[in-house]
Amino acid sequence: MITAYAMTAKGVAAVTALLDAGLVTAVVGADDAGVADGSHAALRALCADRGIPFADRAAAGPPATPYLVAVGWRWLIDPGPATLVVFHDSLLPRYRGFNPLVTALIEGDDRTGVTALLATDEYDRGDILGRVEVPLPRPIRIADAIALVAAAYGELAAAIGARIAAGGPLAGVPQDEAAASYSLWRDDADYDLDWTGDAVRLRDTVLAVGPPYRGARTLLNGTPVRVYDATVEPDVTIANRTPGKVVFLRAGRPTVVCGTGLLRLDDVRHDEPNAASALPLARFRSRFG
Fold it and tell me: What's the CATH code of the domain at 247?
């Protein structure tokens, strides 16, 4: 009845719920080199355990089911005569587009959610079939936020699956265009920290792009490093404020001057395969960025 196009832990959660309902005919997956969470292998193993055909995107043929579901999918799908339901990890119409959960964490949002919608020619503008809200404790790491949202994916997938199983056309509610906002695509350059920014936003960025993503990047005295943990510290008056300079070095952990506020770096690693720690910092007169 349903062909599922799924990636990431959120895709695993949604497909599991649909499999539990006995609605999945086939699954198409794809590996994301930028996400190290093992979800692609987990999805393949899940399908093997349930006796459901699984195909990698490059080898997948055209769908042969009346319903298609896309979860975490990054490519266009031609549904043909089928009904395509897209799952999106924001409360639409807020944050249409790309990496909305990362954006929500960086923007300091205290809630996010999952939306199921009917696909249209323009991304994330279709009628809404259902939403599940997810509170976000602050601060929060992206891995923990993904776990919260994945549970909501499973809940919403079960609800949409029940509507599909009941038969009849799926009807949704039009989005409020006046309330719409967008989240732009992210690439490797977006891992770079801008020390002229606010310390709270910089901390939230560090937590938002950490594992399973590659980690926030900066230069330490000209050498690339990744920052995986940071703590906001009370600001002090600095006559010649220079973002990126170390103002305190305590127990080997540097406190860095930001455009607004101070940020203590608690986990800094060299940007190389062995990811050796760059702490304790040996030199007080150090500059980040």
Answer: 3.10.25.10
